Amino acid sequence: MIGSVRPQVDGGRFAAKATVGRDVVVRADVFVDGHDRVGATVRWQADGDAAWHEVPMEPLGNDRWRATFTPEAPGLHRFKVTGWVDAFATWHSELVRRLAAGEDLTVELQVGAQLVAAAAKRAGGDDRIRLKDWAARLSDAQPGQHAEIATAEELTGLMARWPDRARNAATSSGSPIWVDRERAASGAWYELFPRSASRERGRHGTLRDVAMHVPALADLGFDVLYLPPIHPIGHTARKGPNNARSSSPGDVGSPWAIGSDEGGHTAVHPDLGTVDDVGALVKELEAHGMELALDVAFQCSPDHPWVAEHPAWFKHRPDGSIRFAENPPKKYEDVYPLDFETDDWRALWEALLGVITFWMDRGVRIFRVDNPHTKPFAFWEWLIDEVHAIDPGVIFLSEAFTRPRVMEHLAKLGFTQSYTYFAWRTDPTELRDYMTELTTPPLAEYMRPNLWPNTPDILTEELQTGGPSSFRARFLLAATLAANYGIYGPAFEHMEDRPREPGSEEYLHSDKYEIRWREPGAAAGMRELIARVNATRHAHPALQQDASLTFHRADNPMLLVYSKRDERSGDVVLVIVNMDHRHAQSGWTDLDMPALGLAWDAPFTVADDLDGRTYAWRGPRNFVRLDPAHAPGHLFHVAIPR
Amino acid sequence: MIGSVRPQVDGGRFAAKATVGRDVVVRADVFVDGHDRVGATVRWQADGDAAWHEVPMEPLGNDRWRATFTPEAPGLHRFKVTGWVDAFATWHSELVRRLAAGEDLTVELQVGAQLVAAAAKRAGGDDRIRLKDWAARLSDAQPGQHAEIATAEELTGLMARWPDRARNAATSSGSPIWVDRERAASGAWYELFPRSASRERGRHGTLRDVAMHVPALADLGFDVLYLPPIHPIGHTARKGPNNARSSSPGDVGSPWAIGSDEGGHTAVHPDLGTVDDVGALVKELEAHGMELALDVAFQCSPDHPWVAEHPAWFKHRPDGSIRFAENPPKKYEDVYPLDFETDDWRALWEALLGVITFWMDRGVRIFRVDNPHTKPFAFWEWLIDEVHAIDPGVIFLSEAFTRPRVMEHLAKLGFTQSYTYFAWRTDPTELRDYMTELTTPPLAEYMRPNLWPNTPDILTEELQTGGPSSFRARFLLAATLAANYGIYGPAFEHMEDRPREPGSEEYLHSDKYEIRWREPGAAAGMRELIARVNATRHAHPALQQDASLTFHRADNPMLLVYSKRDERSGDVVLVIVNMDHRHAQSGWTDLDMPALGLAWDAPFTVADDLDGRTYAWRGPRNFVRLDPAHAPGHLFHVAIPR
Fold first, then answer.
1. Is B642 on the interface with A (CB under 8 A)?
2. What global pTM score does this model have?
3. Are A182 and A21 in contact (CB under 8 A)?
């Protein structure tokens, strides 16, 4: 029997996620009735391949088995677990026990001779001759030779190469695995509004201004630059500063009110530049080892060309008006939602796919999708499949801040990464539990968290009230708890903490509605922390994956202690964050030493990448004191002294 | 979307288990993209029924839904979860929010009128007229009437009765549920060897002697009497006392060495009586509210009639001999295993089914199956299905003390109940964790534990060394942790604790190999405890199920504190066992009050059924002291004072 095959999402209905060049760990229960020994392998292939690769599974005890394989290219893959009764191993293990009990083995060796002779027929080349020879030796063995024959490693090795898989064999139904390229698994994102990118105060920023920031962003260690919508912005019901219902002539409006007579989702706002400028920005980023992520917001301003060209793509009320976007009592008068269930849905869906491929043709391979949960599940499954058929390396980040089941389902449908509730998990126990949920099965099999301490929509109460130390701590947490994280950069670097009004999570004077200018030199402290942490992220493979995240205990609950470990290199990073952003906290760690790859009483050194200090520690209990005025925490590289 | 449907075993490959007259609790995630409201129902039916019963599901929050239904007859059942977008509820919840925000509702009420008019077409009888009327009222409403109409309960009630399930509806694939009769869910078992049932010292006991014990067993509160094999016993290689390899002429041999020239699995050992005596015993038990369980051991002594009649049903070695049963270096020379994979397997399997139906025809409806894990999984799935097609009320107890995955799989295949590792879980934390695993999903959905503190094969080290107090404690644990439990009665009542040899779990002078006689009056103390606990089990529905088992904390880890609660009646039993069988232990409880159905600071009384005392308690913290010399624990009935 084969059961509990992992990774597997909803019994194989959806693909589990993996990454090119990284191990996929397959686990399964493989067992039979009775006392027979079994063998097991994993066969895997890329979709469309004729042949299967095969790797043997190793037993973990209690009928659990494990194997790993490493996909080499992005795209859909599939694996199957096959198990069979190993008649020879069963016979051999009994033979060894009989030998130990001093039994006469004559008849048993006859039984073995039959199994070996049968294997000789399956075998090829030299092995066939050697197995035939062994069959004769078993059959003709004199009592004095029994012990030697029963324990011969040559025979067991030969037989392991030619198992009889016909006996009681079972194979699991194929489990799909979607393999993403490396960037999907790990990256530091930086979000900025191009409109605010000019270094010249008062001038509307352009994509060329953005390109001039790229070297500095690369120096800070960012991997992905994400821009909110860059398209023409509607004039009808345009929002004023701070989301005011009315705007003045000079107001720039919300970039999410997409489309005007200057074009829609495939046009660039004239004040920002041209479509060619997007291509040039992609190239500039590429030259610095970075990538561009564009925003996908499938909605229209009332001035979008589609409103006139395709009235059937919008929902009309009984009075003939088009329903603007709202979530009562919130209103978005500057945005019309698309009617994905329109009778003309095929044309609409194709047009939306066309938007993605348009930007793909300009070199864009990462898309941050705005509110995917307000569009049909079936649409996303179709769209992502279509895009991946063209380029399996395209990455989609789901911006669905909604109920857990809906966020999970979007990830199952194919979104590469997902925003999370991280920003609001400020209690240490809550944060530990939430991160554990995100980084262990079943979620970890299909959902990749991307942690953001802030976004243009989210200025948390903690950042509003916690001062600089809370910015530093939340940054350190985001960048080390998850392999993927991001910041709404200019506002974060400058530690902007004033809300639009008390109780709101909106920024006062948000870039969403106006052009902002920020003093270039004012954010040096935060930038230094960012550069250090991102450098550590690049240097340590342990921080480039989430599966190994382990929380350790401490006798002070305000100290959050966690580690990550890269199995291949043995690289280990240990992070300790003071979750109290106002007062110094101290305490003793209670480290799970095996999770650090260390013996329980091992001496080891921890080198802090934030301040360059190194400490000599030993065993689980070590003293820590963290003063938020000086440092948000320790970012330790763990090493064993020579 | 519908996901995480529970109960469901391996995605519906196997049936979950339920009981006639008891609630099946169905849970599922039901959700859609966007902000639409959904509705959900469970439809269920007995296999073969044309119609489906339907029960609405209630939302639990976070897109989780729940419904219960109560099957009325044993046999296979099926349920499906259906969910749909509730356009009216969506519209109505937005309407209420618009009303609160002071918006003009005129156009919105037109939208609602269309939904109500559509519902009128679906509706029948008076509802159709009333809905038509409401559609008109919505359509014609004057501003002054908007608030009244928006909050009218008559309208929401009418619309809930006639939902539009055509919209985005989804239905889960049918989940199978196997429904057993009541005895499967709860019962106290008593095992005895008929050979030792004579009150006259030295005489071979008979089935008629067994029948004479029935009134006393009923007085002790037992529900099931289980007898080891009652068939003729082979003479070849018959075992002597204490499993000696050779026997003397007067030795009775092991009842599991089934078959001689006097017959096989459908015969009764002449020294025990006749097949008719079995029928008479069934009737005597029935008259006392009890049932008979027979042993099913599908193996043969070398003298079994099948050995000569069907040589193909046994596995032969290269030298022509039949392989006797063994698990090297253990040998069972008096037993031949059957070859379930013989070419003649159809005839063999039918013959084995014939054994079961033979005893079913004599009124036996419970079978304790010996070592099912050494026979093919496929055989058991077939056999149990065939038996249940004749009588879905037949109960099979799996005696598989083997690896967890194999025990679980046998339960999935159809075994009604399963022996467990309970006897060896003596550490309080281990026992708590194990019982939690057994009584929560996924295991609890398909595996019913039957706890035995001892069996003829299992005299644990704890009982060997712990004295009378360990017998009392292990009894109280078995009888209150699980709704099904059993004892190898005479040896347990008499607190027999001497092993065959040091380090062995075999009884010295086991009934398995010789006739035993025990002083009738010697076990009064244990019998009194048994009678009290079984009476409590019968009086309290809380103890007749396992799903509600909850462990509570105490500041002394040697105090095991747990409760069970019957949801329908509100009946609550709280048990506190001193896991230290040598010393008195005391401490303070930390009760999970809601699990007891009580408010956190509620006063309540606990009445101990073991000594008749009542205590007035309040809140979670209450003092307990238990001296093993006097009592193994408290068996409390929890009540709220008037």
1. no
2. 0.90
3. yes
